[in-house]
Amino acid sequence: MSDRHPDGSAGDVDYSGIAFPYPSYRQPDPRIAARIVGALEDARSVLNVGAGAGSYEPLDRDVTAVEPSASMRKQRPTHLPVAIDAVAEMLPFPDGHFDASMATFTVHQWSDLAQGLAEMRRVTRGTVVILSCDPAALDRFWLHEYAPEVIAIEGARYPALDRIAAALGGDVDIRPVPIPLDCRDGFNEAYYGRPEMLLDAGARSACSGWSFVEPEVVERFVATLERDLENGVWDARFGHFRTQAEFDGPLRLIVAK
Fold first, then answer.
1. Whole-number Å distance between alpha carbons of 111 and 109
2. Are 179 and 189 in contact (CB under 8 A)?
3. Could you read off the pLDDT of 91-128 as tens digits, one per residue?
4. Quick check: 249 and 137 in contact, CB under 8 A?
5. What are 216-221's contacts with CB under 8 Å, separation 24+?
6. What angle do CA 120, 124, 128 make, to 5 degrees?
7. What is the pLDDT of residue 7?
8. Which parts of the chain fold into alpha helices (H)?
9. Of the CATH numbers 1.25.40.10, 1.25.40.20, 1.20.120.30, 3.40.50.150, which one belongs to the domain with range 15-256?
10. In the chain, what are the domain boundaries?
């Protein structure tokens, strides 16, 4: 396992540098949340691994949150349980301790995917629910043409869905998660019909993939998108997204019974 960052972050991102704007842009979307809760079924005790600021933690369950980044733990609202400082690869719980477990937008940052998923399976009696992205579907998003470097980095970070399924074992169901036009959770694809939002530096910084590209890439992206929005080129090519109710992008729910 790689060394942890100074604030405790254990993945490939040091969240001490991006945690400040994170909760302002990364609010849980209720429609995505409903899919996660549905996948958890009647589980009462739920482990949330890589819990971050607490997005998508169900409020009607007994949730135990695990988050290695001190910066992210500080961002958790007071109505959520205090997160335990631990990493996915070494969960401090006995075998079969939880009815179900969940992990949202986090497996791509783990230093050892197979070990982390094996630990989730070890401590979980029932269903394991993973919200992630299919790296093979990232190029469906128009950002692929404006910042291919970001898409390439994300594609290399997100593990293939069959790797996740194989590591979890058992009966695995991979479900597409449509992204709503007014999605409240500001990951990149959430702005498929609101391109102006990705001109906001705060919105970009709340998506960890942007932290891996050179400043010149960001400057080129901003200048090109601003130009194409002003001269109508973006709307001529992608304007239909502005009124498209949902986007069939890369978001996937992996449900292992």
1. 6
2. yes
3. 999 999 999 999 999 999 999 999 999 999 999 999 99
4. yes
5. 217/147, 217/149, 217/150, 218/147, 221/146, 221/147, 221/150
6. 65
7. 47
8. 22-25, 30-40, 70-74, 113-123, 143-146, 148-157, 161-168, 201-205, 215-231, 233-238
9. 3.40.50.150
10. 15-256
63 neighbors 83 (Cβ within 8 angstroms): no
Question: What is the distance between the alpha carbons of residues 238 and 146, in angstroms, rounded to a whole number?
Answer: 12
Six token digits for residue 190:
């959430």
Splitting the chain (257 residues) into consecutive groups of 10 residues, what average pLDDT does each group show?
47 53 84 98 98 93 96 91 96 98 96 97 98 97 98 96 95 98 97 98 92 97 98 98 98 97
Q: What is the DSSP letter of 132?
A: E
pLDDT digits (tens, 9 = 90+) for 127-141: 999 999 999 999 999
What b/e readout covers 117-150, taking b as 16+ CB neighbours within 10 angstroms? Answer: bbbbbebbebbbbbbbbbbebbebbbbeebbebb
* Owner of token pair 């409240």: 184
So what's the pLDDT on residue 39?
98
Q: Which residue bears the tokens 């069939």?
A: 248
